[in-house]
From TrEMBL:
Keywords of the record: Signal, Transport
Protein name: Peptide ABC transporter substrate-binding protein
Source species of the chain: Haloarcula japonica (strain ATCC 49778 / DSM 6131 / JCM 7785 / NBRC 101032 / NCIMB 13157 / TR-1)
Sequence ranges of Polar residues compositional bias: 43-54, 468-486
Solute-binding protein family domain residues: 96-526
Keyword Transport part of the UniProt annotation: yes
Entry superkingdom: Archaea
Length: 609
């Protein structure tokens, strides 16, 4: 759900956590010179188990306890040792991993588990009982006692979604309304599970701290044969090491085809944490790592390197200027005209063409242009940051509207606060990405020039920003009427982060191009990813809900058009760019492709020596 700028380049992570690394140029041409996974599948006999796959990350993960993470780096680590319910392939078809969904009416979904799934730690076979116990007692636990990050996914209109066991390997999810795209949503796509034997130690007493600190969970001792790799060690801020799982369940599934017979095809999979961007690129250039992300300014140089295959792919994360609307942020960010003013102050076209060298498009709302749900006509009135809606005049006009009735005022070109002092705001960028830092600097310069507001740039590792700035909770001893987990601990006037902040470009937000309604979590006051404290002034959540349950695609498109129009108007965060992912891989690696879904089948990547 949250992508960390410059944090990770891990092929094969599921789209829910956004860990994919390679992503397509906008005209769809493939000029990378790389080998497509489909071509490789035609010659399965060339697949042999050999070598070590090494990826590189600019920032370490936060935790291996997936109940409490929602970021790309942590998800990528965990996903190496645990598959998930199912994947989604390049053609948007469900690819069963642990389970397969089926439905007759689009409302009741039957989930059938494979019969060869085994937990580690002596917990036996994975069964439907494990899933139902976990969903009903943890995901849907009273007042989210466990603090599960994505608890909101398992409720509709404030009520828990009914879940019931059918038999040993089957359970049903009974949605309150028809949802034709349910299998493509992260509620089950990419969903992980824990054995009942672990959870029942904490459920009766609602021992959230015990669950958070459980050693078996935090060292992945329960993963058994459920993922392609097995956890070996994690040296914090240095490396994360997994080794090939000799008991991996997918090798026993005959109908998958010959290319899956001996997956995975690497002896080990290691993530090296290298904070400095130049060092990561040198490691790729020198053959010290298998794969790494490439900044736009370095893309051409690597494309000319015969030893490196470069993949350019569309990706789902929107780069935006996030505003802290909680009590420890700037109070004026709660005003729509103020947020619109910031969007007008920034020249998105220049950012896309110069800083990103054409590997990005201006963004205006919560959907990329390559999505079939993109609603260009609906947002024409709100294309802030381009054309007539960019520059000092449109920005200052909206800021004047925003400060009307307050004690803020302009003294010439400078905005003064109620004490008569110039307004100064903080802006955080990722220390792992030079591009992200330059983006912050350019944004800051344009805001200062067009709005008369001084901007102080701070750089910070992505995991530190999540822990100290995005995560929030009420003061100790103070109760709140609701909590949606780590990233939204309650009402914005009460639940605040450990450290104050005003703006950030550290994290990207997943737009969910296949199932846009999944992004509602950013726009509900109680959304589990709403760490900024945004409270919608229009009916955005209701429109999302209506679109989600609408079967007719034309009607659904119209509803999403209304959603994206309201989001473009309200600017819950300042939409900046939709970047393409640029990834370099050593030439012998076979598997990645220039497609949005590249990585869904990373288990069958291999080295062609």
């Amino acid at each position: 759900m949250l992508g960390v700028g410059g944090a990770t380049a891990l092929a094969g992570c599921d789209g829910f956590l956004g860990g994919g690394t390679e992503q397509t140029d906008r005209d769809g041409d493939d000029d990378s010179g790389g080998t497509d996974a489909a071509d490789a599948a035609e010659n399965p006999s060339s697949r042999t188990v050999s070598g070590s796959y090494t990826s590189v990350a600019g920032s370490d993960a936060n935790s291996l306890n997936w109940l409490y993470v929602n970021d790309t780096a942590s998800g990528a680590y965990i996903d190496l040792t645990l598959d998930s319910a199912w994947a989604v392939d390049n053609d948007q078809n469900v690819f069963p991993l642990w389970a397969e969904p089926s439905t007759e009416d689009g409302q009741t979904y039957r989930i059938t588990l494979r019969d060869n799934l085994q937990w580690g730690g002596g917990y036996g076979q994975m069964t439907a009982e494990d899933w139902v116990y976990m969903i009903t007692n943890v995901f849907q636990g009273e007042d989210n006692w466990a603090g599960y990050t994505n608890a909101g996914d398992w409720f509709r209109q404030g009520e828990p979604i009914p879940v019931a066991q059918v038999d040993t390997l089957t359970f049903e999810i009974r949605l309150p309304e028809v949802d034709p795209t349910f299998p493509l949503k992260p509620i089950m796509w990419g969903q992980l599970c824990l054995p009942k034997g672990i959870l029942e130690k904490y459920v009766p007493d609602k021992d959230a701290e015990g669950l958070r600190q459980d050693e078996e969970i935090n060292t992945l001792q329960y993963t058994g044969n459920l993922g392609p790799y097995t956890y070996e060690e994690w040296e914090r801020e240095s490396q994360y090491v997994t080794v090939r799982n000799d008991d991996y369940y997918l090798r026993d599934v005959d109908e998958l085809g010959e290319q899956w017979d001996n997956v995975p095809y690497f002896e080990s999979y290691t993530v090296q944490v290298i904070p400095e961007e130049s060092s990561r690129l040198n490691a790729l250039r020198n053959g010290e790592v298998t794969i790494a992300g490439i900044p736009p300014r370095n893309a051409q140089g690597f494309q000319e390197n015969e030893d490196i295959d470069v993949y350019v792919q569309p990706q789902p994360f929107v780069q935006a200027l996030k505003y802290n609307m909680r009590a420890n942020g700037w109070e004026l960010f709660r005003e729509i005209p103020v947020r619109q003013a910031f969007a007008c102050a920034i020249d998105k076209t220049t950012l896309a063409e110069n800083l990103y060298r054409g590997f990005a498009d201006p963004a205006y709302t919560m959907q990329p242009r390559f999505s079939k749900w993109y609603a260009e006509e609906e947002i024409q009135e709100y294309t802030f940051g381009t054309g007539d809606l960019q520059g000092s005049e449109p920005a200052r006009t909206r800021m004047e509207q925003g400060i009307e009735g307050t004690e803020y005022e302009y003294d010439g070109e400078t905005l003064l606060n109620p004490d008569g002092d110039p307004v100064t705001l903080s802006l955080y960028a990722s220390s792992a990405s030079n591009t992200n830092q330059t983006l912050a600097e350019l944004v800051g310069q344009q805001v200062e020039s067009n709005l008369g507001i001084s901007i102080g740039i701070e750089t910070i590792p992505g995991n530190t920003f999540q822990q100290q700035y995005a995560s929030n909770s009420p003061p100790e001893g103070e109760n709140v009427s609701w909590s949606s987990g780590t990233f939204n601990g309650g009402p914005r006037d009460v639940s605040v982060s450990q450290e104050p902040w005003d703006m950030s470009v550290v994290l990207g937000f997943n737009t969910y191009p296949r199932t846009p309604s999944s992004s509602v979590t950013f726009f509900r006051e109680r959304g589990n990813a709403n760490y900024t404290g945004y409270v919608p002034e229009s009916n955005i959540p209701e429109l999302y809900a209506e679109a989600s349950r609408t079967v007719d695609e034309t009607e659904r498109r119209e509803l999403f058009g209304q959603v994206f129009r309201q989001i473009a108007r309200e600017q819950p965060f300042g939409f900046l760019l939709m970047e393409s992912d640029i990834t370099g891989a050593q030439d012998p690696l076979v598997g990645p492709s220039d497609t949005f879904a590249s990585g869904w089948d990373y288990q069958r990547y291999y080295f062609d020596r």
